[in-house]
Amino acid sequence: MRIFLLLGLICLYLQANGHILVYHRFNDLRYPSTDTSSKELVKQFEYLKDNHYKVVKLSAIYEKIKNKQDVPDSWVALTIDDNFKSFYSNGLKIFRKYHYPFTLYVYVESAQRYFGDYMTWKQIKETSKYGDIALHSYAHPRLTLLSSKKIYNDTKKSYGLFVKNLGFKPKSYAYPYGEYDNRVRNILEKFNFNMIVNQSNGSVNKNSDLHCLNRIAMVGKVNIKQKLRYTSLRAKWTYPKVFPKNRMLKEIKLKVFTKQKNLKLYVTGYPWRDIKAKNGIIDLKLNLALKHSKTRIIIGTSYYNIADKIIIKDK
Question: Which pTM was predicted?
Answer without folding.
Answer: 0.91
